[in-house]
Amino acid sequence: MLSREAEVTDPWVALEPGADPVERVRQLRRAHEVFTAVGTVERPVRPVVADSWRRSARAGVGPDGTARVELTDGDLGSYRAEHPLARVMPLVRELLGPFAADGKHLLAVCDAQGRLLWVEGHLATRRRADRMNFVPGARWAESAIGTNAPGTAVAVDRPVQVFAAEHFALRVQRWTCAAAPVHDPRTGRVLGALDITGGDELAHPHSLGFVQAVARAAESHLALLSPAGAAADTLELTALGRDEACLLARGRKIRLSRRHSEILVLLARHPEGLTGDELLCALYEDESVTPVTLRAELARLRRILGPGLLASRPYRLTAGVESDIAVVERRLASGAVAEAATAYRGPLLPGSQAPAVARLRRRLDDGLRAALIARRDPDLLARWACAPWGEDDLDIWRALATVTPTAAVRARLEELETELAAPAGWARPAVC
After folding, report:
1. Are 109 and 137 in contact (CB under 8 A)?
2. Which of 81, 255, 337, 430 is the least buried, fewest Cβ under 10 Å from its Cβ?
């Protein structure tokens, strides 16, 4: 149980003890009006909500927006059946289902892209929710519909409550929700989120703590299940969006140094192996680096991995490797652009200067960017444009402006085009 001090100070809980919900709704509606009119956030809007409103506005979301249904019928059924969270739905229903039914709430589960996969609960409440497209297959990502508990939970990777007029979309402001992300226990990757949606009574610390506890139970249950379709000796490499890759090997999670991360990425790309000279050229721009240096790195890596995983002559991994890089590439090759964007967690080892890694990073980014531009999906383009790696991506912002020509998007595009046209040595004046 949360202590009174935790209830007062926890920024993820919507209402502090003793707050008047009616008065808070009035204040939030006024703050929402001010934000949508002039872009400034007034008290008592919580920082987590203020940040979400800003992300929503940068993504081109309007307060009158409606969630769009992306998956229907057979597509929804097959996607749900293959999703990792399908394996824990019996547990989730057992734990959250009675709470939702007794309180006339809804139990919802979304994927990492904010798409609702399951929406269950009280029949009358479901009918009301249907009118705002809170239905299976609809995308409730922040970039699609603005601030809401499941979408914000996957965006910030934290359990969060969203109370009434804290929602960005006006038609959602009669609802209150609490959601918590669920992670792959092997890789730490966000798989989606569990959500409870209903009335204002959900703006209580206990509802958030309960949803978070069920999410942790789901992760523990996933950890007990054998990985579906994966060989026991398969290595799992996570290298997108991080300078130090993570390797799951024989039940151990290993955080690799940057150089070892580069080596693993390259060996995963070349299951046939690489010679010492090939690795030298792939890893080092400085031609003065000697084979002795590389051999020392490989010896350290062999000790970290454990016996039998790294062979030599040529250097190669003795077990198969599944990497997040390969997942993105496979999905792109099959035309599953939205799924590729979901799997993409950021540039490959962004701090790496290894020539071969830099080439692979550019090739992956260029391929995904081209697919997003060709797809012209406003939500996918907004997700890229609002990510740290897409803030200055002129081509993406131009594409976004053609499908979401809001004032905020046009203003950002004009700013980027002005910077591009500025003469060399020009610097934007400081703004105090």
Report:
1. no
2. 430
Residues 175 and 96 in one domain: yes
Rg (CA), the chain: 24
How would you classify the pairing of strands 116-121 and 106-111? antiparallel
Residue type, 80: R
Domain tally, the chain = 3
**Using one digit for the tens of pLDDT, what is the confidence trace for 214-261?**
999 999 999 887 554 444 467 899 999 999 999 998 778 899 999 999
Between vectors from CA 399 to CA 393 and to CA 404, what angle results, nearest 5°?
115
> Around Cβ 388, how many Cβ atoms within 10 Å?
10
- The answer to the question of residue 392 being in a domain is yes
The structure tokens listed for 83 are 């999703």
CA-based nearest residue to 396, from 404, 342, 340: 404
Asked whether the predicted pLDDT for residue 19 surpasses 50, the reply is yes
Q: Which residue has the tokens 């998956």?
A: 71
SS3 288: coil
The partner residues of 195 in beta bridges, in order of sequence, read 108, 179
Q: In what order do the strands lie in the sheet with 235-238?
A: 252-255, 246-249, 235-238, 321-323
Q: Which two tokens stand for residue 202?
A: 């959900």
Element (H, E) at 211: helix 205-224
Do residues 281 and 202 share a domain?
no
- Quick one: CA dihedral 170, 171, 172, 173, positive or negative? positive
